[in-house]
Amino acid sequence: MTKRIITISREFGSGGRTIGREVAARLGIPCYDQEIIDEIAEKSGLARDYISEHGEYVSSAGWWGSLLGSRDYYGNSPQDTLWSIQSRVILDLAEKGPCVIVGRCADHLLKGKADCLTVFIHASLEKRAERIVHVYGESSEAPEKRLRDKDRRRKAYYQMYTDTEWGLAANYDLALDSGTLGIESCVDIIAGLF
Amino acid sequence: MTKRIITISREFGSGGRTIGREVAARLGIPCYDQEIIDEIAEKSGLARDYISEHGEYVSSAGWWGSLLGSRDYYGNSPQDTLWSIQSRVILDLAEKGPCVIVGRCADHLLKGKADCLTVFIHASLEKRAERIVHVYGESSEAPEKRLRDKDRRRKAYYQMYTDTEWGLAANYDLALDSGTLGIESCVDIIAGLF
């Protein structure tokens, strides 16, 4: 099976970004993650922090916050504008050639438009809590609480812009538990399918 | 990673049973599927057809049918009794040694009780429709209608006895789309992880 593009959707703290980078390195193709933020920043004038936070998560003020936030003449919130630019950037990157794209609903955006292998990486709350403390260090907030908040907001974002439930196996060619299988096994499986 | 038992949950028509048998053959371990029905029949006196139909699906009369059906002194329906015997049979099989167990909520039953690799096999409605016509032949009912009915009843059964949503990636170590990846790739990935 030859697939041109690999999209990696992931739960926060599951190591999906690391897996994406390692798969890309092994296959000798680019991995787009931070690069997407840079490209959007250049095209939109939005700040990198804003893009990073609002391109995958609903606002921490939740649905009401999104509804009550500022809107342009056409009724679009700044997050809607970001979604539209982000979508364009991802579709353009996919035109360039084989690559790995991490997050940002790329699986949904490229459905039927490119030859994709769509991957979902998840892990238990315990395993992810261990990982975020290890990778990002301690914070004043308990890691489980940070994860639950991130999960809830990413899930809502995905639902809002794709009208599909987040985390359903049926939405992906491949869904892997990086906590039980290990990062290395996940990389082997994905790279082996390309 | 060494896992003693592989459980395969699958959507009807996804080829999960075939994948289970091929994985077991390649690893030289038993695959329990029809054997579970034989064992339950022996232990319970229930007919094989009844076990086959009611051990993975809610009655076609649905929830109301289950509620209104006959109950024993303790309020258990025949399906509850079947669930209890089936659970015992699966836990006993898991004690015997490395094996593949297909369907029947084995993933849920063995959670925390055995060293398991839990797998979910799914495919699009179109791919599954093609497959069931190829494997089981034509029927008076459209294949898509048969599949939707089977999906609905299997999902309700899983929910009723495990109190967990069917088809969520997070419930499995590995979820594979047999329609896009192909049966052979699925077998390779699963056998490679054992």
What does this structure look like?
The structure is a homodimer of 194-residue chains. With 194 residues, chain A is of the alpha/beta class. Chain A contains 10 helices and 5 strands. Chain A has helices spanning 16-27, 34-44, 48-54, 62-68, 78-96, 106-110, 125-136, 143-162, 178-181, 183-193, and strands spanning 5-10, 31-32, 99-102, 116-122, 174-177. A 5-stranded parallel sheet of chain A has the order 2-3-1-4-5, with helices on both faces. The radius of gyration of chain A is 16 Å and the shape is globular. The N and C termini of chain A lie close together (7 Å). Chain A binds chain B through residues 1, 120, 122, 167-170, 172-177, 180-182, 185, 188-189, 192-193, and chain B through 1, 120, 122, 167-170, 172-177, 180-182, 185, 188-189, 192-193. Strand 5 of chain A pairs antiparallel with strand 5 of chain B.
Quick rundown:
2 copies of one chain form a homodimer. The first copy, chain A, has helices at 16-27, 34-44, 48-54, 62-68, 78-96, 106-110, 125-136, 143-162, 178-181, 183-193, and strands at residues 5-10, 31-32, 99-102, 116-122, 174-177.
Walk me through the topology.
Two copies of one chain form a homodimer.
Chain A (H helix, E strand, L loop, with lengths): L4 E6 L5 H12 L3 E2 L1 H11 L3 H7 L7 H7 L9 H19 L2 E4 L3 H5 L5 E7 L2 H12 L6 H20 L11 E4 H4 L1 H11 L1
Parallel strand pairs in A: 1-3, 1-4, 2-3, 4-5
